[in-house]
Design brief:
Radius of gyration of chain A: 26 Å
CATH class of one domain in chain A: Alpha Beta
Order of helices and strands of chain B: EHEHEE
Largest sheet of chain A: 7 strands, mixed
Structural class of chain B: alpha+beta
Number of helices of chain A: 25
CATH class of one domain in chain B: Alpha Beta
CATH architecture of one domain in chain A: Alpha-Beta Complex
Number of strands of chain B: 4
Chains: A alpha+beta, B alpha+beta, C alpha/beta
Oligomer: heterotrimer
Helix content of chain B: 25-40%
Shape of chain B: elongated
CATH topology of one domain in chain B: Mth169, Chain: A
Strand order of the largest sheet of chain A: 8-10-7-11-9-12-13
CATH architecture of one domain in chain B: 2-Layer Sandwich
CATH topology of one domain in chain A: Phosphoribosyl-aminoimidazole Synthetase, Chain A, domain 2
C-alpha cells in the first residue's frame, strides 16, 4: 500500500507512467487539484482502463441501435418514433458497507443516466448476488439492499418490475448489487451529443442538490495538507440518497428537454463536477472556464479538490444558451430547484478552474475525459483450467436418494425458491403499464397509448462462469434472450454489468476476456448488440474473489401486448410439450449444488444455432396465438420449470419425462435451448409443424389439470404442496413467520 | 435500581440530510424565514435495570453503538440519566 | 362539468407519483381529468378532487405533514365543506388525516416493510362518494403499495368512527372475512378506508386508480370511480 513518504500522485492512485503522461501533457508538474482530477478521471471506475481493450471487441451495431456505448446510456428504436433508453450499473462496493444507502444511491445514479438522455424512466430491474443466507451478515446485507432499492425506487415513482437473486459463498464478503433502468423517449428528442449542439459562450448550469464532501474518499489524502480539525467523519464514505430530490430532478429535467431549452445534459456520478464538465466540454469539442465559487455548497470551507471530486447525489449539469437561462431557471424554480451557472464553454480544449480568484487547475478537457490510460493487462488461465473438467462431472456420481426429496431440496433452494419476500417490497405497478412483473420470465411494460410492450430480463450465470467463463457469459445472454422470447417478444439489444475480481491478477483478466468472448459470440448469433454497460472490478477480499459474473440486461419488443404468452399453466386440459433436447448435463447445476453439494463439471454446452432456432420458434408460435403458456428451462431443469408453471397458473399436471436418462439427470439437467409450453389440443398439429420448420426438437410430455402434480414413474405431489414449499423457503431462512 | 435514559441519534455531520432539508424548505412558507441548519434525527427513551448509574450508562453506550445507531452513518448522544 | 362530462381534479404535490395514474383512471372511466397544482389557490372549477398516491415531500418528517400546508389545501377544505366529493388515495389519505379532514392517522406497517400486492376489500357502507354504486358486504380486489398504511386512531375517535359508521372499507378475504392474514399492514379493526360524517370526503390506502385497466391487473377500482363520477355529476360541490 502507500505510505507517508509516497509521492502525492501515488497516494491518489496514479501510476508512475500515468504521472509522466500528465507531466508531458501539461508541460509542467501538476497542481494538487489537477492531480485530484486526474486521480478521479483515470481511476478504473471512471476510465475503464483495464477493460476498454476488451470491450472494444463487443458488437455494438445494429439497425435499431440509435445510441451505442459511449454516452450516458444506450438507446434502441422501437418504431413509431419511439426510443428505449437503458443501462445497467453496479453499486456493489458501497452496498457492502451500508447496504440500504449503497443500493439506494445505486438506483439514483442509474436513473440519472437515463434522464440525462431525455428519457422518462419507466422500469427498474435489480440482479443481486449475496452469500448464503445461513450467515447473519448476508441476511443483513440482503435486507438492507432490498429495503434500499425499494426505499429509493418506490419513492421516485419508477416501478421495479424484475431482477434476480442468487446466493453463492464467494459473494459473502462481496455482494453484487446491479441495477438496470429503462426509459422511454421520442427518438427525435433524445439528448445526445449528436442531437444537441453546444455553442461557444453557452453556460454550464448545475441544478439539484448542494455539493458536500461526499465520496471523495481516496482523494482525501490531499486534506492532510489543508484541513486540520475536520476528521474522517466530515468526509463520509457513504452517501445518503434523497429520492424526493431525485423525483424533482426527473420532472424538471424532462420538462427542460421537452421545452427544447437545453444544448446538453449530463448527470453527475463518479468524479462529480470534474467528470460532468470535462466530458461535456470534450464532447462539444470545446474547453470550459469553471468557477468553483459558483457551486452551491452544503459544507463551509470546502477546498478546490473537494468541490471538484465530490460525489454528492442528485445533481445534474445542463448546457444552456445564455438567452434561455431565464426559462431554465423558471422551470427549475417551479420544481423547487435552484440553478447555479458554474462554467462557460470556450474555444479550444482547455479546462480552467478557479476558486476565490485563484487558478487552481488548467487541464485539457480531452486529456481527462477521453485520453485516460488503456491497459492490456496480462492474461493467464488458471492452472487447473477452472474448477471443472469432464472427470468432475456430477452425472458420474452415484445417486440413490429419494427423488421426491431431492426435488423439494432443489425447489426450496434459495436460488430457486420464490422471491416474493423481495419483490413485494417493490412498487411494481406505478405508472400503470406493468402487464407482467415478477413471476413472468421477462417483465412486460406497455408503451403508453400503444399496443407495444417492452420485454425486460436480467440474467447472470456465476456458477457456470466459475467452471467456464466463456460458457457462463454466453449462457447468460442465451437465458436472457430465451426469457424474452418465451413471452412472445423479440430480443433486440443488451446492456450489461460485468462483475469480476482484481484485474491485476492474470487469472481474473483471463476470466474477463473469456466472458467478453462469450458475450460477443452470443450477441452476434442472436443479433442483440451491446448498447453500453458497466464494469465492476475488485470484487474480492483477502480470501475470496467472486465468480466471474457478467450480468446481462436484455431488451425485447412485443408488438402487441395482448399476444403475450404467460408463464403459468392457465387452465386444465392443455397439452404440455418440451422443446429442445435434454442431454445428461448437471455440471454446475442447482441440483448438483443443492443436493450433491458440489460445484463441478462442465456447464451445459450451448449451441448458438439451436438457441436461435428456439428463439425464432417461440416468437412465431406466439404471433400465431398457438401457445397457452411458455416457460424457459433454467436453474433446476425441467422439474423446476414445470413446478413453477404449475404454481404460477395454479394448475397441476401429469407428465412423463422423455428419454432414458436416469431420473435425477432427466429432471434436473440444465441443458440449454429448452422451454416448456402448453397449448390447446387443436393447436398441437400446427405447433409440431412449426417446430419441424424451425428445427426445434419437440416432444409431447403430458397434460395440465387437477390439483395433482405427477412425474410419471418418478414421484408425485400436489400444487398446494409445491406452493407451500416454494413460497415459505426464503421467509423461513430469514426467520420470518410463515 | 432502574435508570431512565434518552438517546438522541442523528446523521453524522457532513452527510446530506434529506429530511432536514425538506423541513427547512417548508418553514418559510409558513412564515418563518429565519431558520437554518435543520437536522432530523431519532429520540429513543429507555429504562435499564442496573446496580448503579455508571453500569447502566456503560450498557446504554454499548446498545447505542451496536443497535440504536448505525455507526457507518450515525452518531449518538446520551442525555442525562434519571433514577426511575 | 363540460358537456355533461364530469371534471375530476387531481392535485400534484412535489413528490406525488400516482397523479398521472389517477388522471388516466378518471379518463378511462369517462371523466375529464384536470391537473391541479399544489401551489395554486385554484381548483379550476372541478366537480371532484383527488389527492393521489405517492411520496409528497419524500414522506419526510411524517407522511403528508408538509403537503397539508400547500396553498391548494385551503380550496380543498372549502370545497369539502360545501359538500364537494374529495377522494384521498394512499398518500392522499395521509394528507387528509394530517389536515384533520378525516379522523385518525397512518403509521408504519406492522411488518415494518413496504408491501405491494393485490388485496380484497369488504365494503362497509354505500353512504360515501366512492361506494354509492356498491352494497355493504360486497368485496372488491384492488392493489396496495405502501410502507406506512397502518390506520390508528385514539380510543374516542375510534368509538366515533364505529358509532357513526365511518368505516368505508376493511381488508378482507375474497369472501369478506376480516382477519390478520388478509390485513397487509396491521390496521386497527382492519380499516382500509374511512369517510367523514357527511360521506363526501373519503380516504383509503389501496389504489383504485391501479384497478380499472384489465390489461394490468384486477378491476375492483371501477365501481369506486363510477361512484365518484356519479357524485361529481350530481354537482354536490357546486
Amino acid at each position: 500500500m502507500t505510505g507517508p513518504e509516497e509521492p502525492l500522485y501515488r497516494q491518489l492512485g496514479l501510476k508512475d507512467d500515468e504521472y509522466d503522461r500528465i507531466v508531458e501533457t501539461l508541460g509542467r508538474e501538476p497542481r494538487p487539484a489537477e492531480l485530484a482530477m486526474y486521480g478521479a478521471m483515470w481511476s478504473e471506475h471512471c476510465s475503464y482502463k483495464s477493460s476498454k481493450i476488451h470491450l472494444k471487441t463487443l458488437p455494438t451495431d445494429g439497425p435499431a441501435v440509435l445510441v451505442g456505448p459511449g454516452q450516458d446510456a444506450g438507446a434502441v428504436d422501437i418504431g413509431d418514433g419511439l426510443a428505449v433508453v437503458f443501462k445497467m450499473e453496479s453499486h456493489s462496493h458501497p452496498s457492502a458497507i451500508e447496504p440500504y444507502q449503497g443500493a439506494a444511491t445505486g438506483v439514483g445514479g442509474i436513473v440519472r443516466d437515463i434522464i440525462s438522455m431525455g428519457a422518462r424512466p419507466v422500469a427498474l430491474l435489480d440482479p443481486l448476488m449475496f452469500g448464503p443466507l445461513t450467515d447473519e451478515r448476508n441476511r443483513w446485507l440482503l435486507e438492507g439492499v432490498v429495503a434500499g432499492i425499494g426505499g429509493y425506487g418506490n419513492c421516485i415513482g419508477v416501478p421495479t418490475v424484475g431482477g434476480e437473486i442468487h446466493f453463492a459463498e464467494p459473494h459473502s464478503q462481496n455482494p453484487t448489487v446491479d441495477v438496470m433502468c429503462v426509459g422511454l423517449a421520442r427518438a427525435d428528442k433524445l439528448a445526445t451529443s449528436q442531437s444537441l449542439t453546444a455553442n461557444v459562450g453557452s453556460l454550464m448550469v448545475l441544478y439539484g442538490a448542494a455539493t458536500g464532501r461526499d465520496g471523495i474518499g481516496g482523494v482525501s489524502v490531499l486534506a492532510s495538507a489543508t484541513l486540520d480539525e475536520s476528521s474522517e467523519e466530515s468526509r463520509p464514505a457513504v452517501q445518503i440518497g434523497d429520492p424526493f430530490a431525485e423525483k424533482l430532478l426527473i420532472e424538471a429535467s424532462l420538462e427542460l428537454i421537452d421545452l427544447g431549452l437545453l444544448e446538453g445534459l449530463q448527470d453527475l456520478g463518479g468524479a462529480g463536477i470534474t467528470c460532468a464538465v470535462s466530458e461535456s466540454a470534450a464532447r462539444a469539442g470545446m474547453g470550459a472556464r469553471l468557477d468553483l465559487d459558483a457551486v452551491p455548497l452544503r459544507e463551509a470551507g470546502m477546498a478546490a479538490f473537494e468541490i471538484l471530486t465530490s460525489e454528492s447525489q442528485e445533481r445534474m449539469l445542463a448546457i444552456v444558451h445564455p438567452s434561455r437561462l431565464a426559462d431554465v431557471d423558471a422551470v427549475c424554480a417551479r420544481w423547487g430547484l435552484t440553478i447555479a451557472v458554474i462554467a462557460e464553454l470556450i474555444e479550444g480544449g482547455g479546462l480552467t478552474v478557479t476558486l476565490a480568484g485563484e487558478t487552481v487547475a488548467e487541464v485539457p478537457a480531452r486529456s481527462l475525459a477521453d485520453e485516460g490510460p488503456e491497459y492490456d493487462r496480462p492474461i493467464a488461465p488458471p492452472d487447473d483450467a477452472a474448477l471443472g473438467g469432464a472427470s468432475d462431472d456430477p452425472a458420474l456420481l452415484p445417486f440413490d436418494k429419494d427423488l421426491r426429496e431431492a426435488f423439494f431440496a432443489v425447489l426450496t433452494s434459495p436460488n430457486v425458491a420464490s422471491k416474493r419476500w423481495v419483490f413485494e417490497q417493490y412498487d411494481s405497478i406505478v405508472q400503470g403499464q406493468t402487464v407482467a412483473g415478477a413471476g413472468s420470465d421477462a417483465a412486460l411494460v406497455r408503451v403508453p397509448d400503444s399496443l407495444k410492450a417492452i420485454a425486460l430480463s436480467s440474467d447472470g450465470k456465476g456458477r457456470y462462469g466459475a467452471l467456464d467463463p466463456y460458457l457462463g457469459a454466453a449462457h447468460a445472454v442465451a437465458e436472457a434472450a430465451r426469457n424474452v422470447a418465451v413471452t412472445g417478444a423479440t430480443p433486440l439489444a443488451i446492456t450489461n454489468c460485468l462483475n469480476f475480481g482484481n484485474p491485476e491478477r492474470p487469472v481474473v483478466m483471463w476470466q474477463f476476456s473469456e466472458s467478453i468472448r462469450g458475450i460477443r459470440d452470443a450477441c452476434l448469433a442472436f443479433e442483440t448488440p451491446v448498447t453500453g454497460g458497466n464494469v465492476s472490478f475488485y470484487n474480492e477480499s483477502a480470501d475470496s474473489a467472486i465468480w466471474p459474473t457478467p450480468v446481462i440486461g436484455m431488451l425485447g419488443l412485443l408488438q402487441d401486448h395482448r399476444l403475450r404468452v404467460p408463464t403459468g399453466f392457465p387452465r386444465p386440459g392443455l397439452a404440455v410439450y418440451l422443446l429442445g433436447e435434454t442431454l445428461p448435463e448437471i455440471g454446475g447445476s442447482e441440483f448438483a449444488e443443492a443436493v450433491l453439494g458440489v460445484v463441478a463439471g462442465r456447464p451445459p454446452r450451448l449451441d448458438l444455432g439451436r438457441e436461435s432456432a428456439l428463439l425464432r420458434f417461440l416468437q412465431r408460435a406466439a404471433s400465431e396465438t398457438l401457445l397457452a403458456s411458455g416457460h424457459d428451462c433454467g436453474d433446476g431443469g425441467i422439474a423446476i420449470a414445470l413446478a413453477e408453471a404449475a404454481i404460477e397458473g395454479a394448475h397441476g399436471f401429469a407428465v412423463t419425462v422423455p428419454g432414458d436418462l436416469p431420473g435425477h439427470v432427466a429432471l434436473f439437467s440444465e441443458s440449454a435451448s429448452r422451454a416448456i409450453v402448453s397449448m390447446a389440443p387443436e393447436h398441437e398439429e400446427r405447433v409440431a409443424a412449426l417446430a419441424v420448420e424451425h428445427g426445434v426438437p419437440i416432444a409431447r410430455i403430458g397434460e395440465t389439470g387437477g390439483p395433482r402434480v405427477l412425474f410419471d414413474g418418478l414421484f408425485e405431489t400436489t400444487v398446494d404442496e409445491l406452493r407451500e414449499a416454494y413460497e415459505t423457503a426464503i421467509p423461513r431462512l430469514l426467520g420470518e413467520p410463515v | 435500581m432502574r435508570f431512565s435514559f434518552e438517546v438522541l441519534v442523528s446523521l453524522k455531520p457532513g452527510l446530506s440530510d434529506p429530511q432536514g432539508k425538506a423541513v427547512a424548505s417548508a418553514l418559510p412558507a409558513l412564515g418563518w424565514t429565519n431558520v437554518s441548519g435543520v437536522r432530523v434525527g431519532k429520540h429513543i427513551a429507555l429504562e435499564v435495570e442496573a446496580s448503579d448509574e455508571a453500569a447502566a450508562r456503560a450498557q446504554v453506550e454499548e446498545m447505542a453503538a451496536r443497535l440504536l445507531s448505525n455507526p457507518v452513518i450515525e452518531e449518538y448522544r446520551i442525555l442525562e440519566a434519571e433514577e426511575a | 362539468m363540460t358537456d355533461g362530462v364530469p371534471r375530476i381534479g387531481v392535485i400534484t404535490f412535489p413528490g406525488s407519483l400516482d397523479d398521472r395514474d389517477a388522471q388516466r383512471a378518471a379518463t378511462f372511466m369517462g371523466a375529464e381529468a384536470v391537473p391541479l397544482w399544489h401551489a395554486d389557490h385554484d381548483l379550476r372549477g372541478v366537480d371532484a378532487v383527488v389527492l393521489p398516491g405517492g411520496f409528497s415531500y419524500g414522506d419526510y418528517l411524517r407522511c403528508g405533514a408538509i403537503a397539508r400546508f400547500a396553498a391548494v389545501m385551503d380550496e380543498v377544505r372549502a370545497f369539502a365543506e360545501r359538500g364537494g366529493p374529495v377522494l384521498g388515495i394512499c398518500n392522499g389519505f395521509q394528507i387528509l388525516c394530517e389536515s384533520g379532514l378525516l379522523h385518525g392517522a397512518l403509521i408504519r406497517n406492522r411488518s415494518l416493510r413496504f408491501v405491494c400486492r393485490d388485496v380484497f376489500l369488504r365494503v362497509e357502507t354505500s353512504l360515501s362518494v366512492v361506494t354509492s354504486e356498491l352494497t355493504a358486504g360486497e368485496t372488491v380486489e384492488i392493489p396496495v403499495k405502501h410502507g406506512e398504511g397502518q390506520f390508528v386512531a385514539r380510543q374516542d375517535e375510534l368509538r366515533q368512527i364505529d358509532d357513526e359508521g365511518l368505516v368505508v372499507f376493511r381488508y378482507s378475504s375474497a369472501d369478506g372475512v376480516t382477519d390478520d392474514t388478509h390485513d397487509p399492514n396491521g390496521s386497527i379493526e382492519h380499516i382500509a378506508g374511512i369517510r367523514n360524517a357527511r360521506g363526501n370526503v373519503v380516504g383509503l390506502m389501496p389504489h383504485p386508480e391501479h384497478a380499472v385497466d384489465p390489461d394490468v391487473g384486477p378491476t375492483g377500482g371501477q365501481p369506486l370511480f363510477a361512484s365518484l363520477l356519479a357524485a361529481a355529476m350530481a354537482g354536490a360541490g357546486a
